[in-house]
């Protein structure tokens, strides 16, 4: 059955939808149509949803019905809206677009772009030798069925050793291998969160985590992070947990995605104590823990302060190694791992043995691989910061102490408009609203520094050109981002 969005709901999603002022200001109907396309592009308005009647939306937006009629007409012309007399109008894909494997949609005629939507590195040179070595190890497993719901023992032991080396004694029984960190989060939510449960997340936060929570129909509350180096407001965060007593809190304390903040030791300890008192489970995403830059020393893991099995840690190979190697893990109490394994049987049974063997060999070379990654990222971060300071000096950026992303505060609420314009000059962006719940964060933009320095400098040059032409540009042809990671 087709769902429907009401006029007041769509008005809230649209927010400040009017065209930016300028000598060639777009008509209101064109600005409204562009804003609806923007909602489709960043996932806040799903496909196949019936839009409100023209009169209803006009009343909600306090504009003329003629404007809404013209906007709907333009959306039909571009293929973003289908209408049938007596049945209404619903969102759809243009004929020149396809649904990507991620569920997002992308142009069929997509040209080569500088993709700043994905915060991930290319594979390290050690991957191919690791894959060859893994194939030599594979015969040891071929005599069995190949199903290992918690993962092969070699990989679980290797991951457990990495936690122990960080000051958190861990056994293989406390580790479950998953098909990436996102899969780990999904399994944890299946176990720890009933549909409709209360969840606390940071704002901004990882978009795919919000998607996973939405799939569980979670009721999401947010804790706003400061744009500067301060990050979390300790009193506000702990007070929110005590007062709202969420069933679960999802946090990224190590080089938070997208801000790059690092949670201090004292707050980690107080956070675990507050969660225990409130009956809140903490899901700690450690995707970036291996990527401190310069001499940054990460604090002890959040789970190091846990005495009551309230902390479930998730991590994986995607950020320090390669996103194409779909290996993640959960670290929890051994009984929780067994319950997760039981829940997993209804999802995918187990992770591929060969991929796990590749991960074992990569982890054996972790010191060399990670050291090279850190040096590479530090150089690329500095190149991006220098280019921004030279070409876009009005943007405010706090240099992160680790991770792979900058969180830039722009010189106006233009993030989505800038992303649309950047597509036309070959730069793909992840605008700020993708990292929140309510269409805010238009003054912010995530900029990963995972591409070569020359590409980053070129991208900033193109962004500077379109930024200063935004107010004067005509309506751009619409293009959509493909993947946010």
Q: How would you characterize this protein structure?
A:
- The structure is a single chain.
- The protein has 485 residues and is an alpha/beta fold.
- Helices cover 38% and strands 13% of the residues.
- Strand 3 (97-99) and strand 4 (105-107) form a beta hairpin.
- The two termini are 31 Å apart.
Give the helix tally. Answer: 15
Low-confidence stretches: 98-103, 474-481
Largest sheet, order of strands side by side?
6-12-11-10-9-7-8
Radius of gyration: 23 Å
What share of residues are in beta strands? 5-15%
Structural class: alpha/beta
Q: Can you give the helix content as a percent range?
A: 25-40%
Q: Taking all residues together, what is the mean pLDDT?
A: 89
First-to-last CA distance: 31 Å
- Subunit arrangement of the protein: single chain
How many β-strand stretches?
A: 16
Shape: globular
The major beta sheet can be summarized as:
7 strands, mixed
